[in-house]
Write a structure and sequence with these properties.
The structure is a single chain. This protein is mainly alpha-helical and 187 residues long. Helix content is 72%, strand content 3%. The chain has a two-stranded antiparallel sheet. It is globular and about 55 Å long.
Length: 187
């Protein structure tokens, strides 16, 4: 039995991946923290924030795994420190899956997040999945299937805001030499 030692290159690559995930999760957390508006609707009402846009940007630019981690960690952490502790498990599941779906579609067919149509499709497909997970999770929390309906407008609004912000921001960021180099290296 021989032990395989990680090469310098593989260790460096793993360190870079971990650093990118940490930075993306931080950006998602801060984007959620700096501007979040609780909707004045009956029941929970929902929350509109910029974290969804940052989750979309992370997933489109860096792919499914990093997008999933960024969403789960960044938005889950916001729930824990922002007074939404009961929602944290729901958020972690919903946002990990949403980030993964966006990244998986945006990076399919060797597009690596560079196709406007694939990116738009990725965002549109992820929205009902995220909203369904929140609806089911809140139904369990509230013990009924009616009260969580009040969160749907907020969930929808934050996703639509995310779509309108993420697509043009990604287009701009993809022109930056550092991002271009990353995309070329990972294609």
């Amino acid at each position: 039995m021989t032990l395989k030692h990680p090469t310098h290159t593989s260790t460096r690559s793993k360190t870079l991946d971990l650093t990118i995930i940490a930075m993306l999760a931080t950006l998602v957390f801060v984007a959620t923290l700096i501007l979040n508006i609780k909707l004045p609707l009956p029941g929970n009402g929902g929350l509109v924030h910029l974290g969804t846009a940052m989750l979309f940007i992370s997933s489109i630019l860096f792919g499914p795994k990093k997008g999933a981690y960024a969403g789960a960690i960044g938005l889950g952490l916001f729930d824990l420190v922002g007074g939404w502790v009961l929602w944290a498990p729901i958020t972690i599941i919903a946002r990990a899956l949403q980030g993964y779906i966006v990244g998986k579609i945006a990076w399919s067919n060797e597009k690596n997040g560079t196709s406007f149509l694939y990116n738009l499709l990725a965002l549109v497909v992820s929205i009902p999945v995220m909203m369904s997970i929140y609806y089911i999770g809140e139904s369990i929390l509230y013990g009924n299937w009616i009260t969580p309906l009040t969160s749907l407008p907020g969930d929808f609004m934050q996703n639509i805001l995310g779509v309108f912000l993420a697509l043009p921001v990604c287009k701009i960021l993809q022109k930056m030499p550092t991002i271009k180099k990353y995309l070329l290296r990972n294609s």
